[in-house]
Design goal:
Helix content is 74%, strand content 0%. The longest helix is centred in the first third of the chain and has 32 residues. The chain is globular. 57% of the residues are buried. It has one domain: MFS general substrate transporter like domains (Growth Hormone, Chain: A). The two termini are 40 Å apart. The protein is mainly alpha-helical and 435 residues long. Helix 2 packs parallel to helix 5, helix 2 packs antiparallel against helix 15 and helix 9 packs across helix 15. It is found in: Cell membrane. Pfam families: MFS_1. It is a multi-pass membrane protein.
Length: 435
């Protein structure tokens, strides 16, 4: 096939992107390590069952429902870099409290739950500002390549993090190993402090918070592409988070994997995300952003059903294969869609629109984790993993009946004012009409 006409691989350059890339890479490595260590602390130190696993996973995502929409409005009014630095420093203090409490002999499950909840709140502000700052650091033509590098680094961290977690669990202890995550937040804050983003366009006078939130909601609801992306992403994440919340428990109790080897298996599965980050941008240039996004989303669904088919011993290879293939499709599609959103959404409402989509996408995650924990307590872990994998599969097939599935390329923003043709309900038209 020929490449999409006029599409070239522009490269993100400059010290600002390099620092942003470095800080994010170190931070996600720490978070990927903590993502394995925290549930291991709960299982190994406290004998936590599926309900607690669901609660711990849900706590990290509940803040998107509680403060996600206000965070978008605030980030549109505050320097994104300052918001990210403050979130990093607060998260470092929260995480370091776990090994300190463990050394003092006062660590409890509610303490772990509180750290997950408050760290999740920090993540809401960090991720919202992060989505908004990238177009201030990288030219629009280079956003796809920049996102590919960032997603690739994140996926590589998802490979290295679980392996590092397994090593730390063997050499020190899961709780003590969380110091790695605390240090990673500090490194990220230092890198961000040295980034100098381009100034944003002048903003109109501040409106009431409710009005600002309403702008983001209306833009997403009126735009068919953003609306479908949000809805399908929310359903998919409900299923993904549901079975991911039980993975450590499933591996340790059902498949009888020794705790130090859990990290290795999860790392092998996460390697698919690295491949996805490499494939996303070239596929978008070759086949068009619409076809690439749809294809990757559809391909990420069926492999999830391999997870509940696994058995102890060699059968755990099915878990690795399922995670690898799902990760490839999910990350590749994310690369394509993230770059498109950052080009498509007007800068003045970037934070509000992106966080509205994030609230829908991430807001279903605590529900998925809680549903999975409750269902596993009644029906068993394996059955619950199968149910949640099926939910993800249904969402990936839903894209075929959406506007995304009928588009070779996702629409471009309208860059010049005036009576230009645009898709019905498009964000560019809504923004120009004042919503």
């Amino acid at each position: 096939m020929s490449t999409v006409p006029g599409v070239t691989a522009a490269q993100p350059e400059g010290r600002g992107f390099g620092l942003l890339w470095l800080g994010e890479g170190v931070s996600v490595l720490g978070s990927a390590t903590a993502g394995v260590l925290l549930p291991l602390v709960a299982v190994v130190s406290f004998g936590a069952g599926p309900v607690w696993m669901g609660l711990l996973s849900a706590a990290a995502w509940i803040p998107w429902l509680a403060v996600g929409l206000p965070a978008g409005a605030w980030v549109d009014r505050l320097p994104a870099r300052s918001v990210m630095i403050a979130a990093d420093l607060a998260a470092a203090l929260l995480v370091v409290s776990v090994p300190l409490a463990w050394w003092a002999g006062v660590l409890t499950l509610p303490h772990l739950l509180a750290v997950a909840l408050l760290s999740g709140t920090c993540a809401v502000f960090f991720r919202t500002a992060y989505m908004a700052i990238l177009p201030q650091v990288v030219p629009g033509a280079a956003l796809e390549t920049a996102n590919a590098r960032l997603f690739g680094t994140e996926s590589a961290a998802q490979v290295a993090g679980p392996g590092l977690a397994g090593l730390l669990a063997r050499v020190v202890a899961p709780a003590a190993g969380l110091l790695v995550d605390a240090v990673s937040y500090l490194v990220s804050a230092v890198c961000l402090w040295r980034v100098r983003p381009r100034p944003r366009p002048a903003l109109p006078p501040a409106e009431p918070l409710r009005t600002q939130i309403g702008v983001g909601l209306r833009l997403v609801l009126r735009d068919p592409y953003l609306r479908w992306l949000s809805g399908l992403g929310g359903v998919s994440n409900l299923g993904l988070t549901g079975y991911q919340a039980l993975l450590v428990l499933y591996l340790v109790r059902d498949l009888r994997v020794p705790p130090p080897q859990v990290g290795l298996l999860l790392a092998l599965g996460a390697a698919g995300g690295v491949l996805g980050a490499v494939l996303g941008a070239p596929a978008s240039r070759r086949w068009g952003s619409g076809r690439a996004s749809t294809g990757f989303m559809v391909l990420s669904g069926p492999p999830a059903l391999l997870l509940p088919l696994a058995a102890p011993g060699a059968g755990t290879a099915l878990v690795v294969a399922g995670l690898f293939l799902v990760g490839t499709g999910v990350v590749a599609g994310n690369v394509v869609r993230a770059a498109w959103r950052q080009r498509y959404v007007p800068p003045a409402v970037m934070g509000r629109v992106l966080v509205t989509m994030a609230v829908v996408n991430y807001g279903t995650m605590p529900l998925g984790a809680l549903l999975a924990g409750g269902l596993a307590a009644v029906a068993g872990t394996r059955t619950t993993v199968a149910v949640m994998a099926s939910v993800h599969l249904l969402a990936t097939l839903g894209v075929l009946v959406s506007p995304l599935g009928r588009s070779r390329a996702l629409p471009d923003p309208v860059v010049e004012p005036g009576p230009q043709p645009e898709p019905s309900g498009s964000i560019a038209g809504s923004a120009r009409r004042g919503v």
